[in-house]
Amino acid sequence: MLEGKEKRNSCFIGIGSNLGDPLSNCLDAIENVASLEQITLTKQSSLYKTEPVGFRDQDWFINGVIEVKTAYSPRTLLETFKVIEYEMGRKEGERWGPRVIDLDILFYGQEIIDEEGLVVPHPELHKRRFILVPLNEIAPYVIHPVFGISVQGLLGRLEDTSEVVPLDLGEYRDRILT
Question: What is the set of active-site residues?
Answer without folding.
Answer: 90, 99, 102, 104
